[in-house]
Amino acid sequence: MRRTSLWMAMAAATACAGPHARFEDTPVVWYVDDDDDIPPPSSRDFAHIQYLTDVIVLRPLTTALELRDLEPAHDTNALDEVPNSTWFTNRIGVRSVSPEEAARGPVIAGPPQLPLEVIAGKGGGRNPGFIARDASGRRFVVKFDRKPNPLMQTGTDVLVDRIFWTIGYNVPADTLVRFRRADLRLAKDAEITPKIGKPRRMTWADVDDILATSPRGQGGSYRASASEWLAGVPLGGIAPEGVRVDDPNDTLAHEHRRVLRGLRVFAAWLSHTDMKEDNFLDLYVHENGRRFVRHYLVDFGEALGGHQAEFGRAEDGWEYIVDWEKNGLALLALGLWIRPWERLRPTPWPSIGGFTAERFAPAKWREAYPFRPFVEMDPADAYWAAKIVMRFDRRLLTAIVAQAEFPAAASGYLVDTLLLRAHAIGRTWIETVTALDAFHVAGDRLCAWDLGIVYGLADEGVVERIIGKHVVARTRIGTGGRVCVPLPVTDDYGVLRLRVRRDDGARPIMQVHVGGGDRPRVLGIIRSEGGPCMRGRGRPRCR
Amino acid sequence: MIVFALVVAWSSLRAIVQVHGPDAEPTRGAALPLPGPPADARPSGAAHAEPGDARKLRTRRRHEPEDIALFVPRVILAVPRFVIAGVFTGVSGVLAVFDDGALARIRRVLVWNRAETIGWFPIASFQGGYGISLGARIYFNDLFGHGESVTIESGAGGLYLHANQLRFQAERLAGSRVLLDVRVRYDRTPRLVFQGLGNPPPTESAVVRFDPRATSVRTRYTQDRALAALRLAYELGSPRRAIRPGFSLVFNHRRFGRDRTRQAFLLGPDDREDPSIAEVYDVSRLPGFAEGVDVVRLSGNLELDFRDRGGLPSRGFRLVAIGGGAPPQARDVAFAHYGAEASVHLPLSTRARVLVVRLAFEGVHGDDRRIPFSELPRLGGPFRLRGYRLNRFRDRRLVLGTAEYRFPIHQVVGAHLFVDVGRVAYDWREMFDGRGDPWHWGVGGGFSFRTLERLHFRIDLGYGEDFLVVFSTDAMAAFADRHLLEL
Questions:
Q1: Which of A394, A399, A486, B455 could form a disulfide with B450 if both were Cys (CB 3.0 to 4.6 A apart)?
Q2: Does the complex come out with an ipTM higher than 0.95?
């Protein structure tokens, strides 16, 4: 939702008033205590129609009337990073992840071992499947592809699962499994809730109905994705706003959590448009003698164009499922406005569908169902996520995409497309802010890396140090992206206000707070000093 | 020159490389000394904090500047915001009942078998000048495994006091290329419009019992009608390049009378000021009015359907031609009847924007006294000349043209703008003699709710003589199969 420009201009005029915020002189926090022992919260019901009416009709109306400004995320540490918690575990963002580790992801015990014993119908969701127990006694949710798009949902489910794990989200262990009908058993007490009728005993006819929807491979085998049953009590999805009121550990409004706001960047990268409450899962787990809620992302089969293919929506990723703005403009334009997605064509591979980097505009990307944390995303959230995306190189993506077992040409196309989309994301959101990072003190200088140059998004730049409204020093950034500026001499506390300037203009000012004395150190970072998002040539405006 | 050429070549090469994205992928920051936690699980002694306190801000502004600037407008807008939220809280509470379990229960009520081929659903339509009709349709689909269906439909309100229909349809009877459509219908319409024959001028005269060709006064009459219709055709070619020769046999039993003074059911327009037909016109000059009409009509028909798809065609054409009539039969009825309708779909820029052009003509031949007034070609209504009331114009000849521009708004919603133009006349010479009676124009637009293969319903807003709205949940194609939907 756009912010009212006039009001923001007024706000910007007063932005410089008042003292700077100050950070405590303590070690940077990388762990959050949100895993205290709590009694079991109640399960959260999800009513599709009510939810969709709420997010499509009610919330856009009331949000527009709230005149909300961009509020910084509440779950960051002094370095404007996201610490580890029950929501997120830092991985590729803070360390190297080998291709082998990324390809393995959350999988510990491997794919299900045949034979599979069907114990229930899947229930919920549009895609056919069932719940099964493998030979080792582990339970899995088994899901299949649709015939028009063989390999798509199963492959996408596994590879996006790996990507989100590598990023740091909690995800189930999804793997591919192949079997024949002869490898299935049917439990005597298996139950199914059909579309018509009450829950009843499941029969082989039901199993065959499920299998009939799936394409078959060589020798009549079936390919499915198997999502290992997560240990814990499922409590339903994650509300896009507010908190879970009966979880004392959940104290930060979800729409102000960077892990959910920054998710928009990852979702745009992967075209994961199916963002709804029921694509998240809260689990009441028992770990290390404590019981608490851990928060998961689930159900990735409709990323990478899968949602577009399933619903036949060419506009998927460009417009909400009901997009008042775009549909209203289309009406007013009397059809004369040809929307960007109208000229896109599907790829030659049914397993990929329409996933492409052509015309990809990250700032204009939209999920299918308006998701409130995405609306609240600010440039600092986007920057945090974008630099994680940029950490995925070709080797890593090749290893991850290989898990999907697509045809070789499709896999190669997918890796190239993901890299191109990542580059677009970097240009959009890393270059929106002053992208100096990895600050460290070297003697009497403060050094950092310009991620714009590191990731090939820019060729050159100058770091300007600002006092008041004046540029007091300029330092050219090295060709590799490294730059050092003199530290202010101070006994106690100092604030460096820095910005990067390139040929196309200056980025917003960021603040680096440093402790003085005989042990200078970085105490904290404010990524964007304040005021509305900057707009400039080639840079997006904030949503 | 060589240096210049090299520079140009190098710049071009660089530009080409940049247009096609990064070919030399950067290191992705592998060498960056990134700050981060020492391990995934918290080691003892590691810094930690409560949620929301990880930032370790010692001081912060109590109020952000933008909060101060926006305080007053937020207070003002809080009123409508709370009103909207209050209203939607009630709506949301109702919708919360429709969870997946409730939808399944509703589905069990609407769909009666596991194969989902037997069930029912409500239907509704709205026609400007008449109001809302509500009803229900019971269906039995795929009776013999080739898409044959039986539907039983009943409704009331709006145009109808009640309307009932039993229909059997088979586009591929028993898997063959034979198309069969059998329909039996009974309806009572209490407030049909009669406004003269031809294009007579309106009058303020107090003279009553006019010759129907002398003046145009909007009057009302009732009709009880029983219809039995059969259409048999054979499909040549393929579904998107189909030629369907066939014939139809229609029996219409109509009895007419004075209009009712009020709608007996549901909503309806307040048209009580319209007089009864007998108060204004000499109904003895309307063949069939006094004694009723029992007409058997036999027609040969030819349909060419070369449209690319069903619900949302983007290219192609459709031609329907009929020829036949009512052979001499009881109640001294005999006439020939012919007509044709051609529609062309022209894609504009993309397949989603389509210009549809339709031309239709129709005529009856024979002694005026042997052609019931109810069997004359008619203009006016949702299918023929929008913006005019149903059957506004009647005469022995009819010409109608339409241009409709369709464009997409949403995946399942489209909009359209249209112009309808038409005229009736006694004969073809009068139709095109270029003098006297005007051509009648209707303009407007609307929305359609459809998929690629099926049109679910349309809303049309047309302005001609009146501003009229038509809405229907029936599968209402823009250019309907008029010879089976006669009223």
A1: B455
A2: no
Residues from chain B that touch A208, judged by Cβ atoms under 8 A, are none
Please check whether residue A473 touches B, CB under 8 A: no
Q: Between A90, A335, A394, which is nearest B407 by CB?
A: A335
Beta-carbon contacts of A483 under 8 Å, excluding residues fewer than 6 positions away, are A436, A447, A448, A449, A450, A463, A475, A476, A477
- Predicted pLDDT of residue B4: 57
Alpha carbon B349 to its chain centroid, in Å, reads 24
* pLDDT more than 70, % of chain A: 92
Q: Does A8 touch chain B (CB under 8 A)?
A: yes
Residues B483, B249: contact at Cβ < 8 Å?
no
User: What letters, b where the CB count within 10 A reaches 16 and e where it falls short, cover B219-245?
Assistant: bbbbbbbebbbbbbbebeeeeeebebe
Task: Read off the DSSP letter of residue A489.
Answer: P
Residue B475 has pLDDT above 50, yes or no: no
Residues of B in contact with A357 (CB under 8 A): 21
Return the residue of B nearest to A449 by Cα.
B32
- Show the tokens assigned to A97: 């992840």
Cβ atoms of A97 and A89 closer than 8 Å: no
| Cβ-based contacts of A323 with chain B (< 8 Å) | 410
Pairing of strands A505-506, A493-502: antiparallel
Nearest to B87 by CA among A241, A50, A58, A52: A58
Q: Which residues of A touch B349 (CB under 8 A)?
A: 338
DSSP A83: P
pLDDT at B64: 64
Interface membership of A200 toward B (CB under 8 Å): no
Q: Hey, is A417 helix, strand or coil?
A: helix
Residues found in chain A? 543
- For the segment A63-93, what is each residue's pLDDT rounded down to a tens digit? 888 887 778 899 999 999 999 999 999 999 9
Other beta carbons within 10 angstroms of residue A522's beta carbon come to 21
Indicate the residue of B40, B95, B411 with minimum beta-carbon distance to A50: B95
Q: Is the pLDDT of residue B104 over 60?
A: yes
> B407: which chain A residues are within 8 Å (Cβ-Cβ)?
330, 334-335
CB distance A67–B91 less than 8 Å? no
**pLDDT tens-digit readout, A429-482:** 999 899 999 999 988 899 999 999 999 999 999 999 999 999 999 999 998 899
In the numeric block, which tokens belong to residue B145?
A: 């495994």
Kindly indicate the confidence band of residue B466, based on its pLDDT and cuts at 50, 70 and 90.
Answer: confident
B8-41 confidence digits (pLDDT tens): 555 554 444 333 334 445 555 556 777 888 777 7
Q: Does A338 touch chain B (CB under 8 A)?
A: yes
Higher-pLDDT residue of A118 and A20 is: A118
Contacts of A440 in chain B (CB under 8 A): 33
List the one residue out of A266, A276, A271 whose CA is nearest residue A124: A276
| pLDDT value, residue A112 | 96
| pLDDT, average across residues A389-408 | 96
Cα of A474 to nearest chain B Cα, Å: 23
Neighbours of A370 (CB within 10 A): 24
**Chain A: nearest CA to B264, how far in angstroms?**
36
pLDDT, tens digit (0-9, with 9 covering 90-100), for A307-358:
888 888 889 999 999 999 999 999 999 999 999 898 888 888 888 888 999 9
**Between A84, A327, A455, which is nearest B37 by CB?**
A84
Mean pLDDT for the stretch of residues A293-309: 92
Distance of CA A118 to the CA centre of its chain: 33
Q: A67–B70: do the CB atoms touch at under 8 Å?
A: yes
Q: Which residue of A has its CA nearest to B119?
A: A196
Asked if residues A301 and A154 have their Cβ atoms less than 8 Å apart, the reply is yes
